[in-house]
Amino acid sequence: MLARELARTFPTIDLDDDALEAARLLVERRLPGLIVVDSAHHPVAVLPGSQILRFVVPRYVQDDPALAHVYAERQADRLCDRLHGHRVRDLLPERPQRPPVVEGDATAMEIAALMAGEHSPLVAVVESKGGPNPPMIGAISVVDLLERALPPR
Amino acid sequence: MLARELARTFPTIDLDDDALEAARLLVERRLPGLIVVDSAHHPVAVLPGSQILRFVVPRYVQDDPALAHVYAERQADRLCDRLHGHRVRDLLPERPQRPPVVEGDATAMEIAALMAGEHSPLVAVVESKGGPNPPMIGAISVVDLLERALPPR
Hints:
Two copies of one chain form a homodimer.
Chain A: H1 3-6, E1 12-14, H2 19-28, E2 33-37, E3 43-48, H3 49-56, H4 59-63, H5 73-77, H6 88-91, E4 101-103, H7 108-118, E5 122-126, E6 136-141, H8 142-149
Parallel strand pairs in A: 1-2, 4-5
Antiparallel strand pairs in A: 2-3, 5-6
């Protein structure tokens, strides 16, 4: 099995989409993450839900999680208010990562190596030999891959 | 909202359960990860699907992902055969992580800080003041938390 056979259609979000709407898409479709594309619809990043939380948790709380306790319950409930007025590009990690993208002819081992290395719940699949900006065919989740790769009982 | 209100029942696996059966549980229930418990049913780890892949991808391929390409398609399809005869404890990372566990009275900020810091799609919730080995109440996924924490449209 190759990536193009495993790929299925998957919602994408643009770098300039509203951050709050992106989080709502993740929740409504109960997705393991979001595939972020540039203006040419080329996948540039995978945004797992935990990365959205990284943006809303203040830096000093991330550095010292014990400080999370200083927020009263009601104040803590509003943690996602910080997404207001932000774009998807603001949610991405500062250090660029290896793009979670495989070509259509990638094998199960290549897909698994990328997911394992990037701790990514998802990879995007693009056309093989599609040039510098190959179009996206679809995406594969860890569950999709394991479903096909697990030996029969 | 506190962790005990957000927690829902979630399947758990034991450290000594069969690794292949654990992977099947993840696939069948399409879970973001598995909660691993010890013999006292106390949560000790969260196993995201990508961590299962880390176990099945040989170390030298993880060190140099280009080597994944040396596997022929059919050979790559059988990557999960490596789970045979292993237990869940073998799949856990070698370096112990911060346990992805919150007490029942943790706020949304405390839950988010833990998920963000550990890049975890899931946390387990245990009884507050439950002693050194507090019983598990349930679990919260990133999607569950965002669902409750996102501001109304």
